[in-house]
Structure formats: structure tokens, C-alpha cells
Design a protein that fits this description.
The protein is 62% helix and 0% strand. By secondary structure, the chain is mainly alpha-helical. It has one domain (22-177). The radius of gyration is 18 Å and the shape is elongated.
Length: 181
């Protein structure tokens, strides 16, 4: 697994993505926001008729726990390593345990709402960051897109971060070597 250590590079270290990198970022953004739209669609009823938490909510939990540390650490310039994922999983476990003690079941409305809210935030943040990164051509990780936009609007340089997971770093490096660029 890639490190969640925060290693910011000086401005201008990374090359801006070319057309392929931008399209991939926009595609990832649309996928994230499509998932958020699915979550919003079920917002009135986060549990099934048989009392379980809807599958749509469970679908995002593993990938969300994998991504949350990157979103927090890189997006907010924090060096908290895996703690955002540990804290998220811990909160969900505490809610599930309390639910079991008070109601005799793990999959309660409270747990469903907690996971649902967390996923709406996470995938909205990620989706919008991917879209902004694709549109403005943010170098490196999409979680620096808001920093890059701020830098462009104010003229204040901001640091960059290599994408620690996924295909963006290899795509950007490949595009930077192409003669058509």
C-alpha cells in the first residue's frame, strides 16, 4: 500500500497533466459524483425493508476507508498518516457496538446515517477535486486542486504532491515524455 505520509514538493516540480490525464481526472470525478448522487437518491431511506443498511452505502465503505487518509492528509496538508482511516473505522465500530448494546442489532439507523454522511462528504470532496484538477490541469494529486486554484487566483504559490495511488502519476509521467506535448 502506498504511504500516507505527507511529502509536499515545491511549486513547479511536477508537470501539468496533458489531455489524457485531464480526461482521466474528470472521469474519476464524474464517477465519484455519480456515487454521491446514488447516496442522495436513497437519503430518505438508508435502511432496507428487512432492516439492513442499504447496499449502496456498504459499497463505498472499503474504498472510502482506503481513501480517507489521502483526502485528509493531502487535501488539508496534514501529516496524520493512517489516523483518519483508523478514527473513521473506530467511530463506526463504536456506533455499531453502542447500537448492539442498546437495540440488539448492529445495523441501526444511527450507523447507517453516520456512514452515509461520511461517504457523501468524502466522495463529494474527492469528486469535485477531480473535476477541478481535470479542468485547470492541476499537477500531481487531485487533492491539491483547491490549493492550485487558490494559487492561480491569488498568485500565491502552493506546494504540489505526487499522486500516491492510482494511475494518475504514471499517466502524467508518460504524457510529459511525449513529443506531442
Amino acid at each position: 500500500m502506498a504511504s500516507t505520509n505527507l511529502k509536499l514538493d515545491p511549486p513547479g516540480t511536477l508537470s501539468r497533466p496533458g489531455p489524457v490525464g485531464r480526461v482521466v481526472r474528470i472521469t474519476f470525478g464524474l464517477i465519484c459524483l455519480w456515487y454521491v448522487a446514488g447516496l442522495i437518491e436513497i437519503s430518505a431511506s438508508v435502511k432496507t425493508s428487512n432492516g439492513g443498511i442499504r447496499e449502496t452505502i456498504w459499497n463505498g465503505i472499503v474504498i472510502g476507508l482506503f481513501l480517507i487518509s489521502y483526502v485528509i492528509n493531502i487535501g488539508y496538508s496534514r501529516a496524520w498518516k493512517k489516523w483518519p482511516a483508523v478514527a473513521s473505522a473506530g467511530v463506526f465500530a463504536l456506533i455499531a457496538g453502542f447500537s448492539y448494546l442498546t437495540e440488539g442489532i448492529f445495523q441501526t439507523q444511527t450507523l447507517a446515517r453516520a456512514i452515509w454522511s461520511w461517504e457523501v462528504y468524502l466522495f463529494s470532496h474527492l469528486g469535485i477535486a477531480f473535476l477541478v484538477a481535470g479542468v485547470i490541469g492541476t499537477p500531481g494529486c487531485e487533492m491539491r486542486a483547491f490549493h492550485d486554484l487558490f494559487s492561480r487566483l491569488t498568485g500565491v504559490p502552493t506546494q504540489e504532491h505526487v499522486c500516491p495511488v492510482g494511475p494518475l502519476n504514471p499517466i502524467d509521467r508518460w504524457e510529459a515524455r511525449q513529443s506531442w506535448r
